[in-house]
Amino acid sequence: MHLSRDSARCLFCALLALLLAAGWLSLTVRCNDQGNWSALFMTGGNLPLPAGPDFRGTYLFPGSNGYDGQSYRVIAHDPGLRRGLWIDSPRLRYRRILLPALAYAFALGAPGRVDGAYIAVQLGFLFLGVYWAARWAALHGRSPAWGLCFLALPATLVSLDRMTPDLPLAALCCAWALYRSGADIPVCGVGARDGIRPLVFLALAPFARETGLLLVAAAALAEAGARRFRRALWTLAAAVPYAVWCIYAWMRTPPDATNLFARLPFSGIAAALFHGLPEPRGAFRPALIALDYAALAGMVLAMVLAAWLWLRNRRDPIAIAALLFALLAVQATHPEIWAHVFSFGRVFSPLLLLLALSAARKAARHRALLLAPVILMLPRVAAQFAPQAFGVLRGLLG
Predict the structure, then answer these.
(1) Pairing of strands 60-61, 43-44
(2) Cα separations (Å) of 318 from 68, 199, 223, 337?
(3) Which residues are bridge partners to 261 per DSSP?
(4) Which residues lie below 8 Å from residue 288, measured CB to CB, with a gap of 6+?
(5) In angstroms, rounded to a whole number, what is the distance separating the alpha carbons of residues 385 and 212?
(6) Which residues of 120-139 are buried (b: 16+ CB within 10 A; e: fewer)?
(7) pTM for this prediction
(8) Which of 31, 35, 69, 315 fits as disulfide partner to 162, beta carbons 3.0 to 4.6 Å?
(9) CA angle, 171 as apex, 167 and 174 as ends, to 5°?
(10) What is the distance between the alpha carbons of residues 41 and 228, in angstroms, rounded to a whole number?
């Protein structure tokens, strides 16, 4: 099989990203977590651990409630809701079935292999995300090395560190933008211009996280704006499989009273800006607070830029999708969303990604401004990795 120069360079970038991520995970697990890979799921010692041999030896963080990845790990061991394993907010979590289900499938249902398969699938989405981003850059006359910017997304960094499902959504978002643009990159004999592949990615996106429905809505609105109403209906039909899964999950899970939205627009981010984000006391607290405000400023800028992109081209599906994610940020009010850049940064990474993809276009104006939201968030995200980095350094030197 002959690869073009651009294809080879894109694959090289994706492979480089994969090796860097896998190498980092291996080092931090060995140096910081006694070689126990289950530490990546950040299971809290304050919560009940599911019974069963597949959860023995789980690395626990004493005195902590853990992080979201612990719930998706449990789902990967019981994707069909047959074992009745406990997780918090099961109706909400089970809607995000893509990553856990793929892990279970690649492990062939063997409990002892599910955790490893989960981590492998996460790394696989990283490879694909960087590859698709590199192809987008090459399509628009940029160096495929631009694809490595996918590594800087909060969704990428947080998902690798804590095994959340936000990285797969970002990768699928990138794939949809690439193939929706008309890129002719056939895989398994299926061409991109036949219109099928973008619909496949749209159908998969909500399974990663329900906010993927905004991509479906954006694509349908773009088709309707071009008066292609039949195609708009077919685009909306991409959400049907996800709706069926949600009905199944709804029937087998208890009610969930989680309310993520506010009656007053901007109330969530306004509260974060006014009150600040909680930071532990210590010598570095002032610096962390400053980085928090920089990250929040990046979110505000991202929302403004999304509106600006849409006003410039109201029929552009990428601009429409960016606007919808910005409107979601406007209405999102749940305290956990705005408590840390690890939360709002990863939840709204599709918005940051869509702005970055717009910056890579040939005729893009104010390219640096479109990349600024990610740049403003990156220092606070990186600061969260400082203890791990010191642990790795001690482990290598000791």
Answers:
(1) parallel
(2) 29, 15, 12, 24
(3) 332
(4) 279, 380, 383
(5) 28
(6) ebbbbbbbbbbbbbbbbbbb
(7) 0.94
(8) 69
(9) 140
(10) 44
CA–CA dist 394, 36 (Å, integer) = 18
Task: Return the DSSP state at 50.
Answer: P
Residue closest to 234 by CA, chosen among 222, 247, 245, 244 = 222
CA distances from 184 to 12, 136, 139, 146, 390 (A): 20, 11, 10, 19, 45
Alpha-carbon distance of 174 to 95, in angstroms, equals 21
Residue 282 contacts residue 312 (beta carbons within 8 Å): no
Torsional sign, CA 106, 109, 112, 118: positive
Question: What DSSP character marks residue 45?
Answer: T
| No. of helices (H) and no. of strands (E), the chain | 18, 2
* CA separation for the pair 302, 153 (Å, rounded): 13
| 161-191 residue pLDDT tens | 999 999 999 999 999 999 987 655 544 344 4
Contact 73, 47 (CB under 8 A): no
Do 66 and 44 form a contact (C-beta atoms < 8 A)? yes
210 contacts 313 by C-beta, under 8 angstroms: no
Beta bridge partners of 190: 187
Identity of residue 372: A
Q: Which two tokens stand for residue 156?
A: 């990428």
Q: What is the largest CA-CA distance in the chain?
A: 66
pLDDT in tens, 51-88: 888 999 999 999 999 999 999 999 999 999 999 899 99
Q: What 3-state DSSP class applies to 187?
A: strand
Amino acid identity of 342? F
**How many other C-beta atoms lie within 10 A of the C-beta of residue 98?**
24
- What is the rounded distance in angstroms from the CA atom of residue 182 to the CA atom of residue 194? 9
Express each pLDDT in 318-371 by its tens digit.
Answer: 999 999 999 999 999 888 899 999 999 999 999 999 999 999 987 777 889 999
Distances (CA, A) of 154 to 58, 160, 188: 26, 10, 32
Q: Are 274 and 339 in contact (CB under 8 A)?
A: no
Helix (H) or strand (E) holding 44: strand 43-44
